[in-house]
DNA sequence: AGTACCACCTGACGGC
DNA sequence: TGCCGTCAGGTGGTAC
């Protein structure tokens, strides 16, 4: 699930559960999850320190350990977190386990091992090195319009490109385009200035709504398609039927009936 | 700058 | 029951 809203919910979860407790130990279940850091190095770096605060950029979460050191978590397709007490309660696919002196644990879960855990001393520099675009909820209207102004290719591809803007993935790009009544394969170039204004507003609205609803699709407004991602599902806006098609190698769901063909005309 | 395709992983599901 | 292809909300590399 982990796109921007999900990761923001995880970040708040960390803030609500895991700050200011001494880390007694760090257990790594599978080295594949570690990115440019050794198991022992991670352990030594975190032991007897504590999580002090958190940041998010796109789909990445950063947790400060004080003294210019940050733990970075990326959740891949199947990442999750769980804070719990009893020793035996580690969830399936726990890949990294943080043990606190309070007796509680924080589990970083990642079934498919497509996530990543790493350390960095400078978050802004890490973001720059990765060439990530600005966070999708952090950028202003003019920056957004500028990023989209001279872009070729389809809307969905542009929205999901982390180098353009960070945080939006397959599901939320579909939701944003659905709410904007635009087709996923429509060309960015076909959008005029007011379309871009509208798309920016819709993007913010969708992301903030998702965060407000704790990124739980079943709690989303009934006008949303997230949570009804299957071929043949009824369009919540018209009498149409949702269709699925591949756009930039990913499954895009959209309503062919009430989405505009492109953004050229109003 | 785009796109297409493959690879990295695990697990669930449907068809035979 | 087993095997097999396909698919899944992510990213990175390569080739065109």
Q: Assign an overall shape.
A: elongated
Strand content: 15-25%
How helix-rich are the residues, as a percent range? 25-40%
Q: Which H/E pattern describes the elements? A: HEHEEEEEEEHHHHHEE
Q: What separation lies between the terminal Cα atoms? A: 33 Å
Number of strands: 10
Q: What structural class do the secondary elements suggest?
A: alpha+beta
How many helices in DSSP terms? 7
Low-confidence stretches: none
Radius of gyration: 20 Å
Calculate the mean pLDDT score and round it. Answer: 95
Task: Give the spatial strand order of the biggest sheet.
Answer: 1-6-7-5
What summary fits the major beta sheet? 4 strands, antiparallel
Can you tell me about this structure?
Strand 3 (60-64) and strand 4 form a beta hairpin. The chain contains 7 helices and 10 strands. The protein starts with a helix and ends in a 12-residue tail after the last strand. The strands form 3 sheets. The chain has a 4-stranded antiparallel beta sheet. It has a 4-stranded antiparallel beta sheet with strand order 2-3-4-8, with helices on both faces. Strands 9-10 form a two-stranded antiparallel sheet. It has 266 residues and is α+β, with helices and mostly antiparallel strands. Helix 4 (141-149) crosses helix 7 (193-212). The structure holds a DNA duplex (16 and 16 nucleotides).
